[in-house]
Amino acid sequence: MERKTAFIYTGGTVFDEYLTEKPEVGALVIAADAGYLTARRLGITPDVVLGDFDTLGEENIPDGVECLRVPREKDDTDTQLAVKVAIERGAEEITIVGGMSGRIDHTLSTLAILEDLWERKEGRIFAILTDGKNRVRFIRNGGTILPRSQYRFFSLIAADETVKGITLDGCKYPLKNGRILRRNQWAVSNEIVGNCALIEIKRGGAWIIESMD
Fold this sequence. Notes:
This protein is an alpha/beta fold and about 210 residues long. Helix content is about 15%, strand content about 35%. Strands 4-3-2-1-5-6-7-14-9-12 form a 10-stranded mixed β-sheet. Strands 8-13-10-11 form a 4-stranded antiparallel β-sheet, with no helix packed on it. About 30% of the residues are buried.
């Protein structure tokens, strides 16, 4: 059975010419406020547009697109609300497009969403965050394979005070049973040397960030 996927378009700079992630037929597409402008620029019509519409105006949203109005002053960010809508509608995998430029507080908030989705008691949601030039995912107590791609570099950024038992293989700077500290993020700007790189973490959580330059 295919996993139900959702794409969430948010505010922030997106490098259209480098973006490879696109929703397939049947994917749920949500635009969070100004993310609608990004989706429209990419030629994508969302199923749902969420926001206060003070900037966009509901009259600018095409017929047939569901509009969810939310207050300007609220506890959750628009991206957090969009993620909740995606989960309520059955999403098991989420791709967030945008959300990594402009305000640092918004960027950090969006990175935290990836961790929250991994840690869900109700069941893990596999998620990535991308702006075309960067791609981010979160892992804890596990591993993943990074295939060689347009992204030249990858970095491992600790989310916990200490992340232990780190193995990096198939890369320029391999590591065996290493550790990184949250206050000393040294595992940056590594490079894949073959077809893929293996990343394993025995204890702790970290963001894996792939970057073009």
